[in-house]
Design brief:
The protein is of the alpha+beta class. It contains 27 helices and 22 strands. The strands form 7 sheets. Strands 1-3-2-4-5 form a 5-stranded mixed sheet, sandwiched between helices. Strands 13, 14, 15 and 16 form a 4-stranded antiparallel sheet that branches. Helix 9 (212-219) packs parallel to helix 11 (270-285), helix 13 (333-339) packs across helix 14 and helix 21 packs parallel to helix 24. The chain starts with 10 loop residues before the first helix and ends with a helix.
């Protein structure tokens, strides 16, 4: 038995293609069926790595009696939230307005016109813990639509008003973004400090999410000893020691269910690993040397496990294998002894807290609860030797683990998530001395732009030889920022040209001059109840924050005053939001820093081979508003850049300007280092 989902490419939708439920994918056809037969819609939204989505499928969607009830009363629509973040955004807001909470799986009941009137998240197959059973919910929703239509209509209209208001409501604004004293940034750091966990890092209590977008902002708020940067570096350090990090295979799991980062939800998402790696790279540049190897391990995991043959990046690894969450990643002492020689097994078990009792349902999540310097002294082993022995033991465990059934890999390619990854690789390549990262970033970007650029727009999804779904604002913003980072990493002006095209297309398709904002979906997407827009960051930066950052970076490189003006308008409009909800505004706050901080401009004159040593030094400079410009000054694409003006006769030299002060041109890496230190000293009043 199959249903319509068998024709889809999303692994999440295909997982439901053999349910007895008469599923439809989201689209005009399903909505037309609902209108034609005057039947309410049951909308179920999830994603392939969602553990409770799998649970609800096994309990309810595979049950023939439940399926009959669904098919009799509803037009059933299944949505992959990663494919359609616009649909997810609208109905997540609706369910949150109705119930005060949200999450996945998301279950919403809609009129044939797509207006929500009831919803929730996971529903069990039988009543428990105060929750009704899913069948009870189905019967209640069907009865409400059949016999209390006026009530359903009234409730739906009220929710639609809320959704429309939330998409267009302006925040209190000064009309002009003028905060040179850094008050917004200081307020955000102070607010973070009030919920900061000084023992375990992170903010608040369990569950704990990595929040790499906000951590990246904190790392830009001052030197390594500043309050913001120290909170971020402590958080990254505790995450790196915790079970949220896969110590044997690399990469980070989704989030921790406890306050000390020990027990994760075991799915691995591409976006988490890209954004965390970028924050780790910045922490390394600020002096946290131990974060560099963790950044490399994270990016190496992405290149090894989440990379397609064409060089693009897959979306996720599931949490479940063999019908059990986390089974792939857990260890017993006997398994450790089987894989390793006795001395190595004893040492690894001590360091990574492997015990007979276990720390998760009788088995062990590898983590680092002890100070490695103390273990080095107690074991009588030099620290370098200890690190070597542990690396070798972990590599053996990784090989041993590879014989286990692996969790499902979601092999769809998402434009925005690939943009995050390309950017992380492009920035880490020169900063960490990994030219292979830069090559991987270029290869992925080349594939993506050849594949998802279709006429005058970008597409969002590449899967099973299909390129489909028009790109959303986040796809343009993420890929545009990745292109600018590739330009800075390679000094190849083609990436600047790609960023120019993406930025111009983005403004044309998503900007609202009347509202001083970007919408998340294009204006020609007419199947939606409202045109969604969300300024707040969640697990990933919001589309608006990515778009604003892209225009700010583009304006700094090219001198585009129109782009600079749009940045100022968004920041002014959202000033109130940044003040009230700073942890949901990390990327906008990072852009605000670039507007408040005098720019450090490094212009490298000449083809890459003439300036490669200075180029590497430039990328190790952690200034929060640093731009790197360069290339062949005879190339018109390079010569047009304001920082290259009048420098055609200076091939092989670097020019450092900070604010309104420029240093003497540098003709060597050592001279550039001196110029950068002098520029920072002058800016500090030294």
């Amino acid at each position: 038995m199959t249903n319509r989902l068998v024709r889809e490419t999303s692994p999440y939708l295909l997982q439901h293609a053999h349910n007895p439920v008469d599923w439809h994918p989201w689209g005009d056809e399903a909505l037309a069926v609902a209108r034609e037969h005057d039947r309410p819609i049951l909308l179920s939204i999830g994603y392939s790595a969602c553990h409770w989505c799998h649970v609800m499928e096994r309990e309810s969607f595979e049950d023939s009696d439940t399926a009959r009830l669904m098919n009799r009363h509803f037009v059933n629509i299944k949505v992959d939230r990663e494919e359609r973040p616009d649909v997810d955004s609208i109905y997540m807001r609706a369910v949150q307005a109705m119930t005060g909470q949200g999450g996945w799986p998301l279950t919403a009941f809609l009129t044939p016109e797509g207006v929500p009137f009831y919803g929730g998240t996971y529903f069990p197959p039988t009543p428990r813990h105060g929750m009704p059973s899913f069948r009870q919910v189905l019967s209640a929703a069907a009865d409400a639509y059949a016999s209390r239509r006026d009530e359903v209509t009234s409730r739906g209209n009220h929710l639609t008003e809320i959704l429309t208001r939330s998409a267009t409501e302006a925040q209190p604004a000064s009309g002009h973004f003028d905060a040179p004293d850094g008050k917004i940034v200081a307020h955000a750091v102070s607010a973070a400090g009030r919920t900061f966990d000084p023992s375990n890092g992170g903010f608040g209590t369990a569950p704990k999410f990595p929040q790499p977008v906000f951590l990246d902002f904190l790392l830009r708020t001052g030197g390594p000893q500043s309050h913001g940067a120290s909170m971020a570096m402590h958080t990254l350090s505790r995450m790196a020691a915790g079970g949220i990090r896969d110590h044997a295979g690399g990469g980070f799991h989704r989030y921790s269910v406890d306050a000390r980062w020990l027990v994760p939800h075991f799915e691995k998402m591409l976006y988490d690993n890209a954004l965390i790696a970028r924050a780790l790279t910045r922490a390394h540049l600020l002096g946290a040397d131990q974060m560099g190897p963790v950044a490399e391990e994270t990016l190496d995991y992405v290149l090894e496990d989440l990379t397609s043959p064409e060089g693009a990046f897959y979306s996720a690894r599931d949490a479940d294998s063999e019908g059990e969450e986390g089974a792939f990643y857990l260890w017993t002492p006997a398994q450790i002894r089987e894989a390793l020689k006795p001395d190595a097994a004893r040492l690894l078990s001590r360091v990574y807290d492997v015990s007979e009792a276990g720390n998760f349902e009788g088995r062990n999540i590898l983590h680092l609860p002890h100070d490695l310097e103390a273990i080095s002294r107690q074991e009588g082993i030099g620290r370098d030797e200890l690190d070597r022995l542990l690396r070798e033991a972990l590599e053996v465990l990784k090989t041993h683990r590879s014989t286990r059934p692996a969790p499902l890999r979601d092999e769809k390619v998402i434009t925005s998530w690939n943009g995050f990854t390309i950017r992380a690789l492009a920035e880490a390549g020169p900063a960490l001395g990994r030219a292979d990262y830069t090559r991987a970033a270029e290869r992925a970007a080349e594939f993506l732009l050849e594949t998802v650029r279709c006429g005058d727009r970008l597409r969002r999804i590449v899967a099973a030889d299909r390129v489909h779904i028009d790109g959303f604002l986040e796809d343009y913003g993420a890929l545009g920022n990745a292109s600018l980072s590739l330009y800075e990493a390679t000094l190849d002006p083609r990436w600047l040209a790609e960023a120019d095209w993406i930025a111009a297309t983005m403004v044309a398709r998503f900007w609202s001059d009347a509202e001083d904002l970007f919408y998340d979906a294009p204006a020609d997407e007419d199947s939606l109840l409202v045109r969604p827009r969300d300024i707040m960051d969640n697990a990933t930066p919001s589309g608006n924050s990515l778009a604003t950052e892209l225009l700010a970076r583009s304006a700094a490189l090219t001198g585009d005053t129109e782009h600079a003006g749009l940045v100022e308008r968004v920041l002014a409009r959202e000033r109130g939001m940044m003040e009230r909800y700073p942890q949901a505004a990390g990327r906008l706050l990072s852009t605000a820093i670039t507007c408040e901080t005098p720019r450090l401009e490094i212009a490298l004159v000449g083809p890459f081979g003439c300036v490669d040593g200075m180029h590497s030094r430039a990328h190790r400079e952690p200034h929060p508003n640093r731009i790197i410009v360069g290339g062949d000054p005879t190339d018109p694409a390079v010569a047009r850049l304001p920082a290259m003006e009048g420098r055609a006769d200076s091939v092989g030299e670097a020019f450092v300007c900070h604010g309104n002060t420029c240093q003497e041109p540098a003709a060597s890496t050592e001279a550039l280092d001196t110029a950068l230190k002098r520029a920072q000293s002058v800016s500090a009043g030294g």
